[in-house]
């Protein structure tokens, strides 16, 4: 991975610069074929350009959120009982605060923009043997990485509007008024390699001319993206956002608690990443095959099924989760099985991406859900007729409690109806 932010923890409000490294030899043949891949001989998989792009987008987003440059908190808003700005939504914060869970769907939207637009008219390097993320600097050219910054910036602004915290350190060149942040240039700077940052200069007001040129370049690309691409559907109606509607339906129909729904949602981006994992003998990755379809329903259900099975077969208590055959079709389980299989292999093959963030943190509440043995057990359980955890039978107490709730609800409806008719 070539982005500087992967190599050095940056102070707040500065993209930072890593130590210089030898540039090394570069073998780059001009080719516009997007299907060219970078093979990894270790695990019989291929690291595709889109997978590398998704990795860089997720990495930069992680750093910008953790540093506080982008505010991804779940604020309650102004309430008389809480100090202004201090209160956050406790449930969302508990389960979705980690940047890897992509709770605002920023990474998912940026990857979709990148898939549709970022690779257009960009020459990719020739296939090279056995690269890893840590030494894949030359795989994605500079122009493409600037485009990834544009995709990430647009996705962030769509999801969070102006929730940014930047120093207004740059004055307008003509009259010295209207201090600005050069936020788009800041994001693009984070995608540059160390040697590219060295050539551009420090992130400082004294280097404003070069940084404004970077801002102008990124802004011109942003205009092209907004004009040429139907951004709304890619940002608001992609397969990850579709999963939220389906998970909501589980809560609305009293099939799952709000806590369990949050856990499901937190796992969805992990399986979106797993879909990017491509076997060498496959014509396309599961992401290209399943998650980019116009009809998001099959992909969304398969993602939820994979997350559902991971929780159900993690060894933790999951009595509230029904047998998968009662909730998902055979096709849903078959597709989820492929996602789980990808995830089990990917977490071993490329931990730099798939186990990044909370998904690789043993202290995270959901770490048990994404361990290899859990993924393997869940994958085996997706086979037809196999789901060994029995569905709990309601007790007499449960039936009485449900009956009482139904009577109480019926009485409430009657009271409301009477009040409305008066």
Task: Please characterize this protein's 3D structure.
With 422 residues, this protein is mainly α. Helix content is 52%, strand content 2%. Strands 1-2-3 form a three-stranded antiparallel sheet. Helix 10 packs across helix 12. It is globular, with a radius of gyration of 24 Å. It starts with 37 loop residues before the first strand and ends with a helix.
Task: Give the arrangement of secondary structure elements.
Blueprint: E1 38-40, E2 45-47, H1 49-66, H2 90-96, H3 106-118, H4 142-160, H5 183-190, H6 194-200, H7 208-228, H8 231-236, H9 239-252, H10 258-276, E3 278-279, H11 286-291, H12 297-312, H13 324-327, H14 330-349, H15 351-354, H16 372-381, H17 396-421
Antiparallel strand pairs: 1-2, 2-3
Helix pairs in contact: 1-3, 1-4, 2-10, 3-4, 4-5, 4-7, 5-7, 9-10, 9-12, 10-12, 10-14, 12-14, 12-16, 14-16
Provide a compact summary of the structure:
This protein has 422 residues and is an all-alpha fold. The protein is 52% helix and 2% strand.
Reported for the largest beta sheet, the result is: 3 strands, antiparallel
Radius of gyration: 24 Å
Helix content: 40-55%
Number of helices: 17
Number of strands: 3
Question: Characteristics of this structure?
Answer:
single chain; 422 residues; mainly alpha; 2 domains; three-stranded antiparallel sheet; 3 strands; globular; disordered C terminus
């Amino acid at each position: 991975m070539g982005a500087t932010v992967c190599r050095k923890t940056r102070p707040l409000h500065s993209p930072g610069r890593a130590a210089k490294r030898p540039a090394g030899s570069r073998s780059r043949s001009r080719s516009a074929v997007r299907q060219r891949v970078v093979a990894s001989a270790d695990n019989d998989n291929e690291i595709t350009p889109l997978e590398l792009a998704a990795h860089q987008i997720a990495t930069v987003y992680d750093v910008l959120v953790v540093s506080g440059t982008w505010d991804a908190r779940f604020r309650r808003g102004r309430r008389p009982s809480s100090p202004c700005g201090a209160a956050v939504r406790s449930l969302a914060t508990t389960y979705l605060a980690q940047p890897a869970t992509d709770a605002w769907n920023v990474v998912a939207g940026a990857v979709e923009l990148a898939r549709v637009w970022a690779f257009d008219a960009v020459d990719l390097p020739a296939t090279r043997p056995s690269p890893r993320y840590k030494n894949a600097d030359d795989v994605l050219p500079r122009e493409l990485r600037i485009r990834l910054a544009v995709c990430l910036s647009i996705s962030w602004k769509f999801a969070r509007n102006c929730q940014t915290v930047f120093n207004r350190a740059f004055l307008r060149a003509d009259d010295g008024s209207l201090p600005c942040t050069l936020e788009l240039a800041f994001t693009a700077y984070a995608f540059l390699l160390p040697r590219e940052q060295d050539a551009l200069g420090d992130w400082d007001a004294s280097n404003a001319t070069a940084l404004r040129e970077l801002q102008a370049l990124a802004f011109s690309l942003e205009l092209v993206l907004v004009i040429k691409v139907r951004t709304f559907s890619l940002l608001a109606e992609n397969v990850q956002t579709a999963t939220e509607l389906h998970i909501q339906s589980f809560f609305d129909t009293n099939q799952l608690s709000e806590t369990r729904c949050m856990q499901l949602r937190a796992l969805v981006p992990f399986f979106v990443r797993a879909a990017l994992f491509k076997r060498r003998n496959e014509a396309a990755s599961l992401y290209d095959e399943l998650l980019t379809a116009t009809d998001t329903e099959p992909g969304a259900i398969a993602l939820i099924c994979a997350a559902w099975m991971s929780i159900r077969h993690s060894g933790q208590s999951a009595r509230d989760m029904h047998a998968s055959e009662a909730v998902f079709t055979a096709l849903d389980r078959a597709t989820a099985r492929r996602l789980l299989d990808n995830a089990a292999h990917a977490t071993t093959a490329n931990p730099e991406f798939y186990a990044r963030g909370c998904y690789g943190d043993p202290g995270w509440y959901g770490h048990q859900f994404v361990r290899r043995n859990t993924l393997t057990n869940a994958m085996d359980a997706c086979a037809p007729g196999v789901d060994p955890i029995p569905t709990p039978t309601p007790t007499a107490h449960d039936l009485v409690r449900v009956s009482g709730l139904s009577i109480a609800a019926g009485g409430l409806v009657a009271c409301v109806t009477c009040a409305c008719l008066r």
